[in-house]
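User
Take a look at the entry that follows and flag anything odd:
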Amino acid sequence: MQVIHISAECYPAAKAGGLGDVVGALPKYLSQAGHPALVIIPKYKQKWILNQPFERIFSTLVRLGDMQVPVHVDRYTGNSLGFGLLTVDIPGFFDREGIYIDTHTGYGYSDEAERYVLFQQTVLKFLLESPEKPDIIHCHDHHTGLIPFMIKHCPEYRALSEIPTMFTIHNGQYHGAFSWSRSWILPWYDANANGLLDWDHNINPLACAIKCCWKFSTVSGGYLNELRYAANGLESLINMEFHKAYGIVNGIDNQVWDPKNDPLLAYPLVENIDEYKAQNKQVIAERFAIQADLPLITFIGRLVGEKGADLIPGAIMRFLEQGGQASFVVLGTGDPALRDVFMQMRERLWSYFDTSIEYNEQLSHQLYAGSDFLMMPSRVEPCGLNQLYSFRYGTIPIVRSIGGLAETVIDVTQWEGNGLRFDDLSEDALCRSFHRAAELFQRKDILIPLRERIMKLDFSWEKAADTYISIYKTLQPSFA
């Protein structure tokens, strides 16, 4: 069974968050299970893409209103990924350093709708011309949400309509919606299909995908249930289409996230976990202005309200004002105003707080290895991968009880507890968790065996890949 994954991200080619990790891992494990997988993403001006070998295999024109836009598909000719990778090259639209965010302004691109409509049409034109059609088209998030609609209701692509479509919601808060006044950017479609595109008087790619795909999934069972009452306006649609929904917890790629064989770590794990943690923590202390003898609490991710990043400054200030003793490091990019707050804290809280405002894959691995705790005070967390990475590297997660975090992290006060959880979305609740972490850090009789136990937890992709395969087989009974 051949599966093509269509996505805006795929690690290591282009990654802004968990979507990139999933699309960079699931296809590899599908391929290992005997179901060859192919991934196609936009061709960004990203370092990995620029430094890898590609060959051009397809070129055509795509209509965008009155324009005919030249588009191309390039194939990765290396063999390091474990799956096939294609990139869609659309000069002037995706050849930018940022994936979603303009690196010069810190804000999103104003032509997002045009970019992804062009991307999706290019994928479909390529599939039409391909001699071997996939058995499953698996789309990821709103950037690809119009594909299930296009192959059903656009005459140009209807020849693909017999191929089953699977759609995965990685984050239901982002819909990719745009005004009907911009409907001219769409390909020609059946006149009676407007209702499938519309939600709340806008063209809504996420809603359209849910309506038109054969099956859809979310990245955890808990998040699937949350979407029934918190989907940023799509709650009634989720409930109406719930009969074709699945909640599947993401896995992590144990070959990439392996403390014993991670080339991005200064000190990979040999035998002694305490020595491994201490050595990597010292590397962090040399990189950041923090005190290595204090518990180190880090945040790794996007600096946005969805991740609860706006709660972090106030919670840290309260904790330190209350006499708490800990070091803090924040790594990530996002809201320019929040970025400025963290830079100011860096000056005010010297030796207690430091930050690096960037996306840095190597540094994130080092922080997972050298930190004592990882905080995730999320407002929304469909699955969460950071807590799974932290387990793997012996770092205890501090999480809000939401979505996939509630599904994977059990508070240490409970049987088989593996982290610290809090319920309230507030600075005070996060601050109290910092105090709990500082107390736990002093209890070496609890801390050391806890580290050893969480590093043995298995959240690998094999189980999740098997679940996806079983769903694919319901869509293609000939493979059952």
Observations:
- The first strand starts at residue 3 and ends at 6.
